[in-house]
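Q: Here's a chain of 191 amino acids. Please give me its 3D structure as tokens.
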Amino acid sequence: MKTIAAATALLLAAVASPATAQVSPQEYAVARAEIVNLSNRLMIAFDAQDADSYANGFSKDAKLDFIGGIANGRPAIRKMMADWWGKIGGAATVPADATSRPRNHHFVVNHDITIDKGGRTGTGRVYWFALTNRTPQKDVQPLYFGHVIEHYVKEDGKWLFSKREVFNESLTNRAVFYPELGETDPRKPKP
């Protein structure tokens, strides 16, 4: 009987200990929904070329690393994005009599989100892709695809990106394999 009581006491101490505390399923569900919405809003801001809304998805001292460069801090992210859109022709004028215009849309899917102990930070792996109707034949086609490694922080009651590393697997920063996605080097023989 003493053994059962001691084991029960040890189990209760471990469960109650802050070192082993996990967020509840309800806290996880709310955090996940907020983070997925954050990702979606970021892509909408990206496609709208809204540098303010885009940068406001990041914490004050966040880091963004993507094909357009690396920026540290919300003001630098805002400037880098505005410069990027200007560089790639984002400021093209639309004729006054236009009834439509070509555009790109970015999508984020397969969110794999972990919320750290305490519920104030987290990490994620996310796939993304982009479609365009900027084609000579005026149809819709895939443009790019890749993945993102994200770090989240909860500031002033809302989730923000503290770091976002975007891999465009259609362009220059593609790799043979991505360990962060659970891939192993395909060049090495399997045991």
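Q: Can you summarize the key feature?
A: The CA atoms of residues 2 and 8 lie 10 Å apart.
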